[in-house]
Every structure is written in structure tokens, then in C-alpha cells.
Amino acid sequence: MKETPMNRSWLVFLFFLAALSGFAQAPSALEGTITAVLMDHIQIKSDDGTIHLVVLPAGVSVTKRLTVTWSDIHAGDWVGVDSKPGADGTQESVAINIFSPSIIAKVRKGQFTMASGDLMTNAAVDQVTKGAGGASLVLKNDDAMVAVKITDQTTVHRLVDAAAADLKPGLKVGVRGTVNADASLQAANVLIAGT
């Protein structure tokens, strides 16, 4: 599959979801479009045309992703930044998620290497600057201050709380959970792609 900013954003969010929950069974993830809402289930059609049944247990975590700009980031916000070294060695952001207050408690704090080799930093924003070299963030990690450059290719999303009642046919979603014996997916987290 060709890597695009949208695919990268989904990857970053799915990685974020993985950090939210521990699973007794092997986790599974899927993305697609909701085709039906059936009380405590949703039906999702994946891009390859496969129909999946997703069980929505009471209290399932539902989040909506809104597209925003870097200027919507402020000191004190908690963010998840996917970055990689730029040509000059500074970290350049690929994607940034701004977390709602309820999500902050669930997020793995700190800095770690992702499977892609990119660096993920989940931390509070200490400074937002815009200068001749462009915009940048300084993140306050427990053990260090981390500077990250924002590029024209950086995608920025605000993650806000939603509810199962917000899941409607036609919405693009990402789901992470565990596979049940009947092959349905028991959702732990649902992301509404938003706008």
C-alpha cells in the first residue's frame, strides 16, 4: 500500500490505541465505513469490500478525530507527535494528535520508537514558536525538553471524546479490539475519522 498522510495518520492513531489498552487475547484492528448500526453492534465494510461485525460493549472508548492546524496547538496541550530526523538532524513532525483531557490519562507518556522507526513523543507542550525557520514545538517530557519542527506536510488532528451514539452509517472508522469466537471484533476503542 502506498504511504500517504492519511495512511500515516491512521497508523499513528492505531499505535495510540494500542497504547491505551491491554488485551487478554491477541488484539486486532480494522478500518472501514459503517454500513449499519445494530443496537450494541456496528457493521463495517473494509476497503477490500469485506463486511465485519463489531461488538460495542458498555463503556467502549469512542473518539472523534478532527482535522486542525498547528496554530490550534497551545502551551499546556498534551500531544502525541510522530517525528523523524530531518536533513539537519532535528526531529520533524509527520503527524500530531492533540489529546482531550480524558485521553491524557490513558496515553503512554514519554518517548519511544515506533515499529516504523519513527519517534513517538507523548507529552505536554511547553512552547509553540514560529520563526524564520518555520513553526516548532517544545515538548516537556519527564526527563527532557524535546524540540520538534512542524513542516508543511505535518498532519494535525484534535482527538475529542465521542460516544457509541455518535456512530452512524457512512462514517469512516478505525476499530481496535479482540476477535471473538464467532469472528466478530469486540471493540476496545473506536475512532471516528471526522473532518
Account of the 3D structure:
Helix content is 10%, strand content 52%. By secondary structure, it is mostly beta strands. It has 2 domains: 5-64 and 161-192, Beta Barrel (OB fold (Dihydrolipoamide Acetyltransferase, E2P)), CATH 2.40.50.140; 65-159, no CATH class. Strands 1, 2, 3, 4, 5, 6, 7, 8, 9, 10, 11, 12 and 13 form a 13-stranded mixed sheet that branches. Strand 7 and strand 8 form a beta hairpin. The protein starts with a helix and ends with a strand. The model is unreliable at 18-25 (pLDDT under 50).
Q: What is the rounded distance between the termini?
A: 23 Å
Shape: elongated
Task: Sketch the topology as an H/E string, one letter per element.
Answer: HEEEEEEHEEEEEEE
Largest sheet: 13 strands, mixed
Give start-end ranges of low-pLDDT stretches.
18-25
The average pLDDT value, as a whole number, equals 87
Structural class: mainly beta
Radius of gyration: 17 Å
Number of helical elements: 2
Specify the helix fraction band: 10-25%
Portion of residues in beta strands equals over 45%
What's the number of domains?
A: 2
The strand count comes to 13
What's the arrangement of secondary structure elements?
Blueprint (H helix, E strand, L loop, with lengths): L4 H16 L6 E12 L2 E6 L4 E5 L5 E8 L9 E8 L5 E9 L1 H4 L5 E4 L5 E13 L2 E7 L4 E6 L4 E8 L9 E8 L5 E8 L3
Parallel strand pairs: 3-13, 4-13, 6-10, 6-11
Antiparallel strand pairs: 1-2, 1-12, 2-3, 4-11, 5-6, 5-8, 7-8, 8-9, 9-10, 12-13
